Amino acid sequence: MKETLVFKIDKENIDMDKIKMQGDILKNGGTVIFPTETVYGIGANALDENAVSKIYEAKGRPSDNPLIVHIARKEEVYDLACEISEKAKIVIEKFWPGPITIVLKKKDIVPYKTSGGLDTVAIRMPSHPIAMNLIKESGIPIAAPSANISGRPSPTDEESVLQEMKGRVDGIILGGDASVGLESTVLDLSGELPMILRPGGITLEDLKEVLGEVMIDPAILEKNENIKAKAPGMKYTHYAPNAHVYIVRGEEEKVIEKINALIKENDKKGIKTGVICINKHVKQYKGEIIGLGEDLKEVAFNLFKALREMDKRKVDIIYSESFENIGIGQAIMNRLTKAAGYKFIDG
Ligand code: TXA
Ligand code: MG
């Protein structure tokens, strides 16, 4: 167990002394967990292999899974990457700071430890004021994957961070809930056509509006042993709570009927069952029910928190309703499908 320096910081009224102390940890090669607008991240000096190793260690993460490098000023992209296309410049101007990561050819300064052995590097400028101030204060680019043990849902709230990571890192900054709730969109701009490797806060529709044609990595949409995911992180079972997750899909009425039938069966067998659904359906089910929200944006915000809450309630099986695969719905369905290990039930 490590000694972890934990600070609570108000994002509306940032205590720069505390930021400076955590920034010093990063400067000295340590690890610090901090809030971003998407999820909490576990940061270390992206240019220092030794520091980056500590991230992999804390997360128990396979080291072929590359990290996102976080910067506090747009210009820093030129220090880290080369061949920055017009399309990349458009994305940077339009969406940074914000929940989108771009993949570009890397410069030698970025160690292969950070890029997971790839010749490309993923870069993001987060909009969260604590993240921005911490990166600025440290004076270095910060590699930061989501602050979960590898395979678990990403933490979006203070309690989840403390529970899972205290004692595994040198510093933690608690700064309230992450506002998006799902990780950033990962957009590959290192090739001819922009390609979404991971759907997220900035949607396909948002990107098409400014870039024209945008592809989606086919590996995101289906489980197919023959398709290799271009974002290595997408190939692992991911975002999974302890319970087995099933997605129940089909017509609204049929889905409700099916889930209720399954709950009944499970009750008989003594299997503790949870349901996650849109708010208007909460009253349709009995047992451990969590309403994820009124609309897709709220569902995105609450999804990981709900999966973690189900673990706390010690349920054995979670049934999730299915969500529309457009806008932020693509990111929701991507994470849910992974959490479920591709297990669908037709209603
Ligand atoms: O919202 C986020 O992006 C959060 C916060 C903390 O910023 N970070 C995050 O990092 O989600 P992580 O490490 O959990 O996910 C990074 C994803 C993985 O799927 C990884 O495989 C992909 O980005 N990735 C990173 N570098 C890449 C590269 N050079 N080429 C392709 N995919 C890459
Ligand atoms: Mg992650």
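^ magnesium ion complex. Residues 4 and 170 are 5 Å apart (CA to CA). The chain has a mean pLDDT of 94.
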